[in-house]
Amino acid sequence: MFSNRGRRTAAIVAALTATVVLTACGAKTTDSATAGGAGAAIDTSGSAIKVGLLNSLSGTMAISEVTVKNSLLLAVEEINAAGGVLGKKIEPISEDGASDWPTFAEKSQKLISEDKVAAVFGCWTSASRKAVLPVFEKNKSLLFYPVQYEGLEQSPYIFYTGATTNQQIVPGLDYLKAQGKTSVYLVGSDYVFPRTANKIIKAYAEANGMKVLGEDYAPLGSTEFSTIVNKVKAAGAAAVFNTLNGDSNVAFFKEYKAAGLTAGGMPVVSVSIAEEEVKSIGTQYLAGQLTAWNYYQTTEGAANEKFVKAYKAKYGEDKPTSDPMEAAYVSVYLWKAMVEKAGSFDVEKVKAAAGGITFDAPEGKVTVDGTTQHISKTARIGRIGDDGLITEVWNSGQAITPDPYLKGYPWASGLS
Amino acid sequence: MTLVLSQLFTGISIGAVLLLIALGLSLTFGQMGVINMAHGEFIMAGAYTVYVLQQVITGAGWSLLVALPVAFVVAGAMGVLLEFLLIRRLYARPLDTLLVTWGVSLILQQLARDVFGAPNVQTRAPELLTGSIRITDHLVISSSRVFILVLALTAVAALTIVLKTTPLGRRIRAVVQNRDLAAVSGLATARVDRLTFFIGSGLAGIAGVALTLIGPIGPTMGTNIIVNAFLVVVVGGIGQLQGTVIVAFVLGVLQSMVEYTTTVSVASVIVFIAIVAFLQWRPQGLFTLRTRSLA
């Protein structure tokens, strides 16, 4: 009994000590950052230039974010093999955001002030991006963000290489409209991205004579969809617009099929299901359904053939490539082009050089828009095949200029 | 009318899922009083059993049928191991059991992640169970849900027969109602405990097989389930099978009816409020077991 209690006390003391030490370390990091003052100090002394890779390598987001880190590393490797940037090899420093937003902020601070990196690549969820945004703005350092998101943001220190709403959701709706679908049902997870996206969809629908027959949100991780599917079915919409995230998609599509609903009768357009997710939901349930992205593994072109081949050679034949992975791969090449045009690693000079830079990406030619710091992208609607791959059924024909605040769309004027 | 009927069936099918996941727990928690937080991971083990078997057996229908007994044994064996290694040393300390089994659940989750990978795995459902049964033009019920309902009712019937008519059932009930007297009468209570735990955990395995038809199969699937399972058992009344059955269906129908007219989140809130109110009125749950034990 006594020895037990003794052990417990020792454990508590150890835990407390650990907390104190950790707090002290945290404080030190912040101090040195403040002392560093304005402008990110970049270490250009050595023969290599450091960049940060900030992805969740553990926790619930690891499944998705590890694939992004893999393609970032592939790009770095390719660039180094071709001679590096401004004569320097790229030295990637990887940090684990651990699917925890404060950790993302802490690690980005570490990369900027201790490693003195030239730029950071990574983040996936909007929550993690919002958490690191003030850190990059305060330190005047650069972040390249590779995932489609809900728009309505434009930080001077972030380059967005994933789609904003007018490059993914709006074209998705245009496609439905062109197919003669005059009514939709909205199903999404209950958090910021689906709610913002659905606000935009409702504004679009009103202006384009489309009816929104219902709108339902399920908590993240929810796996009971029988009632929602009943509601969808009773509403009799022409199509479903799906902004569910993660595991919920599995339960939703199993229920959807079980209720006798089909891709032919009432297609579902999803914006968060890429090749990797198709694998875990099951093609049995998904075959024939639609997705809206800017890139698929099957996208045609020499640049993509090279990318897919290189990725599979490095990570395995069974590993698919997806839209966020491609956007991450592209982001490293765009940074390289910006640095070379600026002739310097200096953040302000790189930013000034960014506008108009183009790159022959796997998804097709992309151009950096200097004002919004987003990139122009071609929108693509794809159909999920029996083999789990997604094939394009429609594309926007040309790269769409990014418009994160939807200023060019009169119907969106009421959104904020 | 059709709508009400179709929602009613949805409610009953939600109830059947609740019943399946809570049934094993009504034995281990309800009858034995063990708070086993790893129960959800036994369900996960049952689901992964289907996945593993489908690597060997190609026919989706056969693999599912074979998976039912195999999952029962796999999850049951895990339960016995847990009982033998940890829980039997902690019978007098329920709160420690809670923490220890929670730790075990985390270990099992990580184990699943290491063995099967962090992403969800997919299983194939037999074609028969991915479609639906058309009753009228508007009343269509999904065949996987019917299968789960039948499975749940069969499990309840089997468990009732075991508890009421077999010598094992008599022993289990004797130990639950008065452990000391049962021991004095010559029952090996430790062995009865282990067998009870085997059956309870095995039922979790069967629930896992059923869940592959409707939800994701991944390392964290157990955590999403375990709270609902405890809820059903507590509201039903500790130690009462009939309470578990009734409460599972009532909660299922309530959830689906409220959800249809509101949203998922509002429905969950209303169901929880109803539960809290009910437990204020009847803290002991729907049914109570009258025993002579002092506990």
Automatic annotation (TrEMBL), chain A:
Keyword terms of this UniProt record: Signal
Coiled-coil boundaries: none
SUPFAM superfamilies: Periplasmic binding protein-like I
Gene3D superfamilies hit by this protein: 3.40.50.2300
CDD domains xrefs: PBP1_FmdD-like (cd06355)
Transmembrane region(s): none
N-terminal signal peptide: 1-26
Record-linked InterPro entries: ABC_urea-bd_UrtA, Leu_Ile_Val-bd, Peripla_BP_I
Protein name according to UniProt: Urea ABC transporter substrate-binding protein
Organism this protein belongs to: Actinoplanes flavus
Species classification: Bacteria, Bacillati, Actinomycetota, Actinomycetes, Micromonosporales
Automatic annotation (TrEMBL), chain B:
Entry keyword set: Amino-acid transport, Cell membrane, Membrane, Transmembrane, Transmembrane helix, Transport
Family per similarity comment: Belongs to the binding-protein-dependent transport system permease family. LivHM subfamily.
Protein's membrane topology: Multi-pass membrane protein
Record localization: Cell membrane
PANTHER family: ABC TRANSPORTER PERMEASE PROTEIN (PTHR11795:SF447), BRANCHED-CHAIN AMINO ACID TRANSPORT SYSTEM PERMEASE PROTEIN LIVH (PTHR11795)
Pfam families: BPD_transp_2
Major site of localization recorded for this protein: membrane
The protein's name: Urea ABC transporter permease subunit UrtB
TM stretches of this protein: 6-30, 42-62, 68-87, 146-163, 195-214, 226-254, 260-281
InterPro entries xrefs: ABC_transp_permease (IPR001851), ABC_UrtB_bac (IPR017779), BCAA_transport_permease (IPR052157)
Species of the source: Actinoplanes flavus
